Amino acid sequence: MRDSEISPKAVSLRVNGVSHEVLVDPDTSLMTVLRNDLSLNGPKYGCGLGQCGACTVLVDGVAARSCVIPVGKMQQREIVTLEGLTTDAVLHPVQQAFIDAQAAQCGYCLNGMIMMTVSFLQDHPVPTEQEIRDALSGNLCRCGTHIEIIEAVKKASKLLALNAQSER
Question: Which of 85, 104, 130 lies at the terminal end of a domain, its last residue?
């Protein structure tokens, strides 16, 4: 199909708790729409094949690779980006743990690592180190901050447990 044959359609999205309507080809990647149309720069373009994890977002609470998801399939879904984790200027415990553990060098993988950690800790609130390694094995970090990232996930687990206790 040539560019002249592509006809944009209105696609309704719910991102970070806000409804949006974008006029776009429904086959456009979710990541492209998030970055280019909604100015959300948390998801990064890494490999474009869904293999590196830099573009990870939460779709209905589950980590998903936004570079390979057609935006047209995201209607009626709840999408959360890195920007959506912060509420009332307070960082999500996972974001805070990554800062506390100094788990960033270049920061390119950070979005994916944080979003994967949020999703992972929902189902594994007290993970072992091997479970953490397995959960993050599909997220690539070229700088070598893996040790700090693992420590950040451990800290996040503890922060989330403390938050859950204080809410009781």
Answer: 85
Shared domain check, 68 and 39: yes
One digit per residue, the tens of pLDDT, for the chain of length 168 reads 555 567 899 999 999 999 999 999 999 999 999 999 999 999 999 999 999 999 999 999 999 999 999 999 999 999 999 999 998 889 999 999 999 999 988 888 999 999 999 999 999 999 999 999 999 999 988 887 789 999 999 999 999 998 888 887
Number of domains, the chain:
2
Report the alpha-carbon distance of residue 144 to residue 127 in Å, rounded: 22
Residues 76 and 143 in one domain: no
